[in-house]
Design goal:
The structure holds three protein chains of three kinds.
Chain A: H1 2-32, E1 50-55, H2 74-80, E2 88-91, E3 94-97, E4 100-107, E5 110-115, H3 129-140, E6 153-160, E7 163-168, H4 189-195, H5 200-203, E8 210-216, E9 220-225, E10 238-243, H6 247-255, E11 261-263, H7 269-273, E12 279-284, E13 288-293, H8 303-311, H9 315-321, E14 327-329, H10 355-364, E15 372-378, H11 383-396, E16 400-406, H12 408-417, E17 423-428, H13 435-443, H14 457-468, H15 472-488, E18 492-494, E19 496-504, E20 508-509, E21 525-526
Parallel strand pairs in A: 1-10, 15-16, 15-17
Antiparallel strand pairs in A: 2-3, 4-5, 5-7, 6-7, 8-9, 9-10, 11-19, 12-19, 13-17, 13-18, 14-19, 20-21
Helix pairs in contact in A: 8-10, 13-14, 14-15
Chain B: H1 22-57, H2 62-67, H3 75-84, H4 91-103, H5 117-150, H6 156-171, H7 174-184, H8 201-235, H9 238-245, H10 250-288, H11 293-302, H12 306-334
Chain C: H1 2-9, H2 19-31, H3 35-50, H4 52-55, H5 87-122, H6 125-140, H7 143-154, H8 158-185, H9 188-195, H10 200-236, H11 248-256, H12 264-291
Amino acid sequence: MDKTMTRFSRRTALVGTATALALILGGCSGAAKDAGTSSEPTGEPQRGGELRVSIGAEPIAPAFDMGTMAVTSVGTASIATLAYNGLVDFQDGQPVPELATAWKQTSPTQYVFTLRDGVKFTDGTPFDAAAVKFNLDRLLDPNGTGANLPPSLESVEVSAPNEVTMNLSAPAGGFVASLRRGRVMMMSPTAVAQYAKTDPFKASVGTGPYKFEEYKTGQYIRLVRNDEYWADDNYLDSIKISILPDPTTSMQAFVNGELDVLGVTPAQLAQVESRGNSVIKTSISNTFNYVSFNQSVKPFDNVDVRRGFSAAINRDGIAQGIYQSYADPASGPLSPKIGDAYSDLSGLASQTFSTDKAKEFLKNGNFDFGTTVPFSTFTQAPFSTEADAVAEQLQNIGVKVDLSKEEFGSWAQKIYTAKNFTVMNSGQTTATVDPDEILYPLFHSKGDLNASSINDPELDKLLDAARGEQDPQLRAQMYQQASKLIADKAYAAFTVYPQKIAATSPSVGGYEFTEGGTNPLSRVWLAK
Amino acid sequence: MSVIEAVPDYDRPPKVREPAPSSGRLRRIARTLLINAAQLGIVGLAATFLMFVLLRTIPGDPARTVSGPGGSVSPEQIARIRSELGLDKPVVVQYFDWLSAAAHGDLGKSLVLNDSVTTLLSDRIVVTLQLGMYALAFALLVAVPLSVLASRFTSDRANRSVRLVGTLGIAVPSFWLALLLIIAFQNVLPTFGYSSISDGVGAHFQHMILPTIALGVGMSTLLFETTRASLIGTLNSDYVRTARSFGIPERRVYSRYALRNALLPTVTIAGLEMGALMGGALLVENAFAVPGMGRLLVQSVLARDYTVVQGCILVLVIVVVSVNLLMDVVYSFIDPRVRTDNA
Amino acid sequence: MPESFGAALSPSSPIAPNTRQRRRFMARILSLPGQKVAWSILFVLVSAAVLAPLLAPHSPNVQDLTSTLAPPSGEHLLGTDDLGRDQLSRLLFGLRTSLAISAAVTFGVMVIGLPLGMLAGFTRGIANTVIARLIDVGLALPSLLLALALIAAMGAGVTSTVIALVAGYTPYLARVTRSVVLKIREEEYIDSAAVSGVPTWRIIVRHVTPNMIESVSVQLTLIFAFTVIAEAGLSFVGLGIQPPTSSLGNMLALGSTHSIDLPLMSIVPGCTIALVVITLLVCGDGLRHALDPRSNR
């Protein structure tokens, strides 16, 4: 009798626990499943309120000093656009005035910008031509670590208190676009001179709609409204950006109503809908994901081997399975959003899924199926999930793959610094508006992000010429040619054009994805 | 990550020694403590040196974290950043530079984050210590009264039920428990974040309740089992029986005789578990986005933020030494018959 | 105390390597209440792990991008994950991975920790102090720190996880071993044996080892159980076993990200972890009771 009692009590304990857990979880999700989504507030924007959002990674120091490499960190630069402006902004495929009210191209290699009057940085320093020169000189400084230098920029002169003249070393078609907010931003010279070396956060003074007020490392960054802003579309009193590295926590926080906006992956949409009243916003942009092959490692210097690997990738499957169709299959580096430079490359065998063709390519390339190919990726969704899918698809055509995963920092150093890899996958996630910004860094032999040792003289010539071409039609055609070359020679295997997805609470109005990289929160307002 | 040390077999009475004269006893305790402190200190320093070297052998360059991984940063610029950060000197020199600065209270500046190491550490250690203390307090508050209650039932079945509860408390991973707690208390308690006491006691505790429970449950079941077993043993021992036979009321038997001795293993395990608490705190800190040392450590190792990691290790070593010494003190006062340098 | 030594010295000690003794030993364990259930569950779990390739309805890594995150169905009894892989198969193979890692870690800890602890117990003077303090510091530095450094150096995966966990748990075993050896060292009969000229190694083998087996084997069972949880913790921070290899830990970590819409994805691995750990601990208890007949717990 003693034994039966024990069995009963143990089993009861286990079953009871499982039931209790199931009840808790089931009950909660059941209760919250009302309507799936609702809609945004309408009417005139209202002023006031604190917006609560999150980011997944801690910004590095110098976090918001846009004269340093920090500007290339996508998350950081996007937050920075809440506090800074650029000379121009970008809308509907065109640069529009921001801190510069007008500009003219006085010669193929010279531009003159007229600056907006009466603008001040939040520390009182006036915004003028000297300030513009100061900021751009920082990028030009060979000893500095500035990035996003506008193409071919050689020097900047103050031609009048509110006028700046920029001299180029060669013509550049995308020059004005490269000076946009999100890419090159204006910081207060006084603050930078005083604080940049010792306390980068204090140096982060701009002219933007909000200003940095507080940064508690590990916890949050808070911005407050800039009451002296030169425009009036900064509606919020403050914005609190909590640092939440764990996606489960941020999802829970959003569902509990502790966050107003959340960036989500497609796989998380079902959970967002359990909040019952969230608004889903999506946007297609110029970003793409890809698999790249290190051409300094045999046999990836052979074009047919690369084509074979590329043809093994089931792009439709990835777009549907991983992205729940919130992505389009890609066959080239330029998405339809880029405008005239886009061409439909889905006919290329090197970027189309076909296991037979893939094997054929590999046979032509004399690929040795006995070797194991190292595939390096990093532990962040959805890239690591894509890597899993691609590795599996490669194995389906008989290729032996050794997939290794590291956290992003180590991976980035391995790939870009040490160039110690064979196959890797990544995504081009910066907000880009000009084909030069997309193609040059990755595929030009002198490109910053060209970790795969791509060195194609014909491609280089094309990219250099396109960069300098002034006629938009000709330029677009050149980029079409360049992308076709890149896709056909499988310098990368393009997988999908992912959409950006954000979930917002129904009281959030004015959330707009932007093309140029300006933070979608910059014109947001809260309905009471 | 915690391990139960095999509960001491209380049936085996501790070695009886001649009680030493009081003044000599204090002096002996002090002497032993000093020797222990010195030993631990030396080993602790060795540990910091080891970690110093280990960090610099891991592939990955903090200069790259600062400058960004892109290829546009030239080798000369990297070299310049490295020398600014002091990374171009020989390792031993770097270590002694660091050590001498540390002796003056200057732990350097974080290579990656926007703060000095001292600020970072002091902010974060406060949080982790609070979390640890609350968890320990929670564990004791739950375990001790329950074990007093449960010590009345000594049947086999009772023993097994207790054991089952104990294993359950340990078997559920703390981060999963954290998630379950968040779900269970959604809309009642905040999901994430931290609010310091100076910003409002109410908000502080609101943010700390769930992390405390998530961290403390495992330890509370452990302490519950241990204390109960120890209490049962003590209650059956000779001197308690003697006390009872003298007619001393049960309440006093418990509080004056039984509990004091029964708490010995409790203290031991609580002390041993401090290290495990740090590791467990990390997972809980991650789940609740609490800005503690655990999270700082993970972030910093991954970002190769040498200065911060070094600072953390120094703090850890100091904590280890202090806890060890504290335990020795408590031990020697609770039971003067136990030798203070016994394992 | 003398009784236990009588037992140890006699040829029919409980751990004599003799089938009849072993069977009697096992029978003694099973006769304790609750042990039959626990050991049968353990048997089922270990068999499931060992026989996973035969039992799993699908291959655990096969992806089906047309049915990702699917709820349970006839085809996939526990649904699919974010790449359409069958959860039941991944669970079985994950159990296999986790148990294998725990076994490897336990073995490693034993191989390094035992000699270390015995060395710490037998030596005297400075050597004793140094090793003892090393163990103390090793105990206190969170094993996670060492795990982080190793994983940052070697990349995440099976090897680095095993090494990291071995480094983390060895101090515990060493410490216990050392304290047992210290206790035994104080017994008079050891001194008398030493005085009468019995060589040290023989003392170790005949007298120390039998008495150590109880504490040590209990510790090892505990370490085995805790490794399962430790691996889960590492996977939670993204540093443990990486997909596509499935482990109970990374299944729980991944499942947690869907706790709202697909609670089963986290409940199943979570409960499995709990079940494995509880079973191991209860079996360990049985082992302890059987080895120490005077135990009244």
